[in-house]
Every structure is written in structure tokens, then in C-alpha cells.
Amino acid sequence: MQLKDSFDRTIDYVRIAVTDRCNLRCFYCMPMEGITYEPKAHLLTYEEITRLLSVLGKLGFKKVRFTGGEPFLRKDFVKLLDSTNELQMYDSIHITSNGTLLEKHIPKLKELGIKNINLSIDSLDEVRFKKITRRNDFTKVIRALNNLLDEGFNLKINAVVMFGVNTQDILPLAEFAKSHPVNIRFIEEMPFNGGYKKNAQIFKANDIYRIIKNEYPSLSARPKSHGETATNYQINEFKGDIGIIPAFSRTFCNTCNRLRITAKGEIKTCLYDGGVFSIRDFMRRGISDEELTTKFVELIKLKPMNGFEAEKSGKNTLGREVSMSSIGG
Ligand code: SAM
Ligand code: SF4
């Protein structure tokens, strides 16, 4: 079956934040002192997440991404990967990670056939990496990156581009795709940084494109696949490719296929809404799978046309002290 929203978009991709905790302090995501974490009892349990995935699988969801916070920071995260795998309902399981704790789990990921990893690396310069993440984990992350490459994972590197901070990293990061089969994704900065800074000047997707095109004139767009938020580009003789994600400009909403579930079980039908329903509280009332299914069908119909509509709905998260770490990026 296919689940359609009110704008005839097929919704088949769920992103779940398994924790709001993180061991880095990327300043576009969290203030230096961190955010107020949810008590453990407020988080969805692994059993609850697996149940949700089973219901969504029956509703036609085909792709799941685990994110956070840092997913590998949550105890026994691989058990959740195991139980998701056992469901045999998803075409692919994806993980977004900062890479600091990942290395030792590579054999298990291989065993489970989980090959799709997004690593967040905003700079290949150690000093700037440290300045951005406010931690000293560059060597660990680069080691994880190299190991994942050696082991043949499908790797994407997420780099948030920040005005006046790391625009000088755009070309070195792009260059990395010349000799490595990775997708380097440049992401516009969004205003979800836990209140650390207001009204950041946004370095737009067009500006990123111009810098890369100027250096590599053969840069050319690939056709978009279902639900893809990035515009992907190839460059002659590059092993990997380049993606640009207009996360702030929101020019991709007409093909959005996502549903988000935050660490504490809040459903977000759009990244820019403030959370529309607590699926955790609903489940903890003892409802049946049928009731859960009906609720998801209802919730999907609430999905706004685009991120600007979500923002206007009055329930948006902009201007609030919200961190991407609790939303799940
Ligand atoms: N800790 C993991 C990581 O960093 O990959 C997963 C969670 S993180 C919130 C998921 C993604 O959101 C990362 O790629 C991160 O760069 C991105 N992100 C966080 N804050 C952002 C912001 N304000 N604007 C754009 N992207 C952001
Ligand atoms: Fe942590 Fe990821 Fe946020 Fe950085 S972007 S602080 S690694 S959750």
C-alpha cells in the first residue's frame, strides 16, 4: 500500500531520533552548555520504536533513518538495529552519525547489511572542525570515515555551510569526492541551534553551487530520485558526487516523502512544524495497532504543503530554543 498526504505525495520515509543527547556541541545545533535533555522515561523505548516501525511498515513505509542526538550514544543502539532488521519491512536502514563512536560497530553494521551511513563533517581542517564541534574528536571521526570507506559502505558526508565560518571548506570537501566514492552534501544552515544564535546570515544553496561550478565547470545535475531533498551533481572524473540541500530555502517540499519522530515521540509532519502529536502518550494509553494505524493515516493528512506553511501555522519551532539534536536532523 502507499500512504498519500493531502497533496498527493507518497509518504514512505520515517526519520527517528533515538536520543536527544550528544557528545559534540556543534554550534549550529546546540549551545556550548548543551540543552536540557529529556529524562530517560520520556524517550521512546526500543520496543515502542520497533512497534511504530512495524505499523509504518504495514502502511507502506520503505525507508527508515535513525538519527539523534548522537544515535550511537544511546545504550544498546545496535539492538534497535537488530530488531528493525528482523522486521524485514524496510528496503533500507540508514543512520546519521557524527562518527565519534561508530568505529567499533562497523562489523555489526556489516553483519546486519546496514550500508547507508551519513557522517557529519563540516570541515576537513582539524582546527575549524574543533571550533565548530567544540570538541577534539577530529582524528576519531576521520578514522571512522576511512574505515567505512575501506569496508565499502554507501557514505554521505553532511556539511552545514555557515556564513563566515566554513565557506572556505566547500572546495576541499568537494575535492574529497574526486578520489573517494562518497556523496558530499552541503546543507544550508537552519535556525535550530538551541537558541545559541538568532538570525544567522544564511549562505544559500545558490551561493554554494556558484563556488563549486566556478571551480569545476563540468558540474552537472543528476535527475532527482523519489523524495530526494538534495540536488545531486556529478563532476567529470570524480568518483563521488556532490549534493546541495536548500534546507532553509525549502525548494524541495513539493516532493517531500518524510515523517519525523522526535526522541520523546513527538510526530513532526514537517521539519518546520513544532510537533503535531505525541505518539508516545497515545501508545502509553494502551491503544491497539489498528488505532495506531488510523492515527498515522490522520496525521499524514495534516502534513502541510511546505515548510513555509508549517512556519505560518503558529506551531512552528522558529524563534524557539529548539535544537536539531532533539528534532533529529
Ligand atoms: N549527531 C548526528 C550527526 O551530527 O550526524 C545526528 C544528528 S544531527 C542533528 C543530524 C544532521 O543535522 C547533521 O548532519 C547535522 O549537521 C544537521 N544539523 C544540525 N543542526 C543543523 C542546523 N542548524 N542546520 C542545518 N543542519 C543541521
Ligand atoms: Fe551532536 Fe549532531 Fe548536533 Fe553536532 S549536529 S551537536 S553531532 S546532534
Main sheet? 12 strands, mixed
In whole angstroms, the N-to-C terminal distance is 27 Å
Q: In oligomeric terms, what are we looking at? A: single chain
CA-based shape: globular
CATH topology: TIM Barrel
Q: Give the strand tally.
A: 12
Name the CATH superfamily classification: Aldolase class I
Number of domains: 1
Beta-strand fraction estimate: 15-25%
Mean pLDDT: 93
Second-tier CATH architecture: Alpha-Beta Barrel
CATH class: Alpha Beta
Compute the CA-based radius of gyration.
Answer: 19 Å
Bound molecules: S-adenosylmethionine, iron/sulfur cluster
Walk me through this protein's architecture.
The chain is built from eleven helices and twelve strands. It is α/β, with parallel strands linked by helices and 329 residues long. It has a single domain (13-327), classed as Aldolase class I (TIM Barrel, Alpha-Beta Barrel). α1 (46-58) runs parallel beside α2. It is globular. It starts with 12 loop residues before the first strand and ends with a helix. It binds S-adenosylmethionine and iron/sulfur cluster (SF4). Iron/sulfur cluster binds at residues 22, 24-26, 29-30, 68-70, 98, 120, 324-325.
SSE topology:
Elements: E1 13-17, H1 46-58, E2 63-67, H2 77-87, E3 92-97, H3 106-112, E4 116-120, H4 126-133, H5 138-150, E5 154-161, H6 170-179, E6 183-188, H7 205-215, E7 220-221, E8 231-234, E9 241-245, E10 258-261, E11 266-268, E12 277-278, H8 279-284, H9 289-301, H10 307-312, H11 324-327
Parallel strand pairs: 1-2, 1-10, 2-3, 3-4, 4-5, 5-6, 6-9
Antiparallel strand pairs: 7-8, 8-9, 10-11, 11-12
